[in-house]
Design a protein that fits this description.
- 2 copies of one chain form a homodimer.
- Chain A is 47% helix and 23% strand.
- Chain A is an alpha+beta fold.
- In chain A, the strands form 3 sheets. Chain A has a 4-stranded antiparallel beta sheet. A 4-stranded antiparallel beta sheet of chain A has the order 2-7-4-5.
- In chain A, strand 9 and strand 10 form a beta hairpin.
- In chain A, helix 8 crosses helix 9.
- Chain A binds a DNA duplex through helix 9.
Chain lengths: 213, 213
DNA sequence: CGATACATTGAACAAATTCAAAGCTGGTGG
DNA sequence: CCACCAGCTTTGAATTTGTTCAATGTATCG
């Protein structure tokens, strides 16, 4: 498979090594809403998302899903579980048709981890995940609903204009009602005006930023 | 310094390398409540806690501190900031007198990161941090105050018996009032009885576990 | 047109914090 | 020895933030 060669993780491998890697891996095709793994599952494969996108979430005591992150190709998905040999800490669901490279983790570790090219990239990937989790904590623990919304609008205006209230609410882990009320509030405060379809016609980024920082 | 040799991270280094490492590092002594770094600071050193313990926290919009984790020696403290070259995502305060090895990060990366012994240990450390953050998310986003308390009692009974309500509350990011009320509730439900000083006299671990899992 | 999904609004509710007051407890100094 | 003080703990009441539930409004698209 030439695809492996294109995975940033493995570009520095020799052809021999690539062939060896192929022998311990397979590509899985998943359809929309299919679950890659559930929170609590024992990890066997290292998953690398090749195409499509994934939604990572946890389930709280009420049974509702808490959105953590959306993953895009190409990258490791939940290597923490493999590295620490613990169950997956969250569930991953396909947001559309996805292709995933599944690598037998035990064999990968024993055969490839000494390779400095690979280990450096693993470090980068882990550090990236850590940053994501740190942001999740900021969003969910530090910010109020209003602050989350303000932050989302400022930092992701294109998404804000594109998505429906229900979708945004689900990303922010708030209810559509709260989003609606908060947007109404921003409007009366003259901080934000939106046309139909969330098209932003006036935005006081200064004030919005002040709400969350 | 023979101390560096004892740091798990660097045990596999040659004497020459140790000497080189010494030349780009220094040991800092900090006193109780002293701040190692503040959230938002630019990282310059890689910090390795040698003795004492650190409290890592974020500050929310109300100005109150959200406890994230307590660090014990020996280990990296907030390497994420160095690796990703971003500001510290949280603040670190000494819980007692501390000694910290500070390593010039730029020189460390350029001189030592190719070393596979070191990179493997960095991977371990990062994976460990990721696990911690994942647990923070579980605690703060998924669990209710009651569930947090139940979990703490089951998983850290010795700490529960040792610490005061105010200290436990601060670890769990709840108010002492909430803790007090919840313990009273557990008592009326016959799930938990404590003598004076939190000494547990009766505990229904089964039921407690059911509250948080 | 009509159906279905999405958005808005109000009212009730829930969880936890805040504020205030009162009760304990343990150590200290007279 | 014990009275007192400082710091915890407990309890109640009010408040805050956001969710839930229900009703109504508004698109949009076959």
């Amino acid at each position: 498979m030439k695809r492996i060669k294109k995975i940033p993780f493995f570009t520095d491998l020799s052809d021999d090594e690539i062939r060896q890697l192929e022998s311990i891996s397979s590509v899985g095709a998943y359809h929309t809403k299919e679950i890659l793994f559930y929170e609590g599952d024992a990890p066997k494969y290292l998953h690398i998302l090749l195409s499509g996108s994934l939604r990572l979430y946890k389930t709280n005591f009420k049974g509702t899903q808490v959105f953590l992150h959306r993953f895009y190709p190409i990258g490791l998905v939940a290597e923490l579980a493999n590295f620490e040999n613990i169950p997956y800490p969250a569930s991953a669901e396909c947001m559309g048709p996805c292709e995933v490279l599944r690598i037998d983790y035990e064999r990968l570790e024993s055969d490839f981890f000494k390779n400095p090219n690979i280990s450096l990239k693993i470090i980068k990937s882990l550090a990236g995940k850590l940053k994501i989790m740190s942001e999740v904590v900021t969003n969910e623990v530090i910010l109020t609903a209003e602050a989350k919304i303000a932050k989302f609008i400022v930092e992701h205006q294109e998404l804000f204009e594109k998505l429906k209230n229900t979708q945004i609410a689900s990303i922010l882990n708030i209810t559509p009602e709260t989003l609606s009320r908060t947007l109404a509030k921003f409007k009366t405060q003259e901080i934000l005006h939106v046309d139909e379809h969330h098209k932003v016609s006036h935005i006081d980024a200064q004030s919005l930023r002040a709400i969350y920082s």
